[in-house]
Amino acid sequence: MASARVYAGRSAEQRRAERRNRLLAAGLDLFGGQGYRNTSIEALCTAAGVSTRAFYEEFTGREDLLLALHDQVAARAYDAMVETAAALGDVPLPERTDAILCAFVRAACTDPKAARIAFAEVLGVSPAVDQHRLQWRNRFVEFAMVEIGRAIERGEAPQRDHGLTTIALIGAVNELVVEWVVRGRTVPLETIATEAARMAYAAFTAS
């Protein structure tokens, strides 16, 4: 039975995973190049070398593929922040903020096309996409609130409700990345990261 599932040395599961990866690569190239709204399912299938039927076996539609690509960027950036924070130990808040925001920006912008998808192409697509983005934003807020709580305990930040400040900061950092994307990446990523860290430190230490 198992041998019947193998074709050209690959199992059905392997072939399906390869097909999904080709569609993700096509979405990254087309959504991140010509834009989500300018890309049809037919164009995605042609680029991936799969049939329309095969596309719908992997994704419910373009929006589903868009969210999968957004998740890749968001997860990469989130994991980079968590790993950086864990490795910093008792580093003071200014250096800690700089390191964490630099990790976020580098991870989110590793691929300019992926950054365009995650920070620009997802905007205004649908209420479902907006809700998905909100769920990710809440995860970043939770992470930031843990870091702020740590700073308060160490006397590096004032004791107050930093929730709205955190939401505003996330929006500001996102806009910096959008600016980097739409301006053709004329501003060095290091400058974006430094500005984000400067804003974060100023916001969290304000009384």
What does this protein look like?
- With 207 residues, this protein is mostly helical.
- The protein folds into two domains: 3-58, Homeodomain-like (Arc Repressor Mutant, subunit A, Orthogonal Bundle), CATH 1.10.10.60; 62-205, Tetracycline Repressor, domain 2, CATH 1.10.357.
- 73% of the residues lie in helices and 2% in strands.
- The chain has nine helices and two strands, in the order E-E-H-H-H-H-H-H-H-H-H.
- The protein has helices spanning 12-31, 41-48, 52-58, 62-88, 93-108, 112-121, 127-153, 163-182, 189-205; strands spanning 6-7, 10-11.
- The protein has a two-stranded antiparallel ribbon with strand order 1-2.
- The longest helix has 27 residues, at 62-88.
- It is elongated.
Structure, briefly:
This protein is 73% helix and 2% strand.
Please write out the topology.
Blueprint: E1 6-7, E2 10-11, H1 12-31, H2 41-48, H3 52-58, H4 62-88, H5 93-108, H6 112-121, H7 127-153, H8 163-182, H9 189-205
Antiparallel strand pairs: 1-2
Helix pairs in contact: 1-2, 1-4, 4-5, 4-6, 4-7, 5-9, 6-8, 7-8, 8-9
How confident overall, as mean pLDDT?
91
Instruction: Count helical runs.
Output: 9
- Give the CATH H-level superfamily of the largest domain: Tetracycline Repressor, domain 2
CA gyration radius, whole angstroms: 20 Å
SSE-based structural type: mainly alpha
At CATH level 3, the topology of the largest domain is Tetracycline Repressor, domain 2
Give the tally of β-strands.
2
Strand content: under 5%
Terminal-residue CA separation = 68 Å
Order of helices and strands: EEHHHHHHHHH
Q: What's the assembly state of these chains? A: single chain
Strand numbers in spatial order across the main sheet: 1-2
Please estimate the helix content: over 70%
Biggest sheet: strands, sense, closure?
2 strands, antiparallel
Low-confidence stretches: none
Number of domains: 2
Overall form? elongated
GO molecular function, one term: DNA-binding transcription factor activity
Protein name: Transcriptional regulator, TetR family
InterPro entries: Homeodomain-like_sf (IPR009057), HTH-type_TetR-like_transc_reg (IPR050109), HTH_TetR (IPR001647), KstR2_TetR_C (IPR041490), Tet_transcr_reg_TetR-rel_C_sf (IPR036271)
Organism: Pseudonocardia thermophila
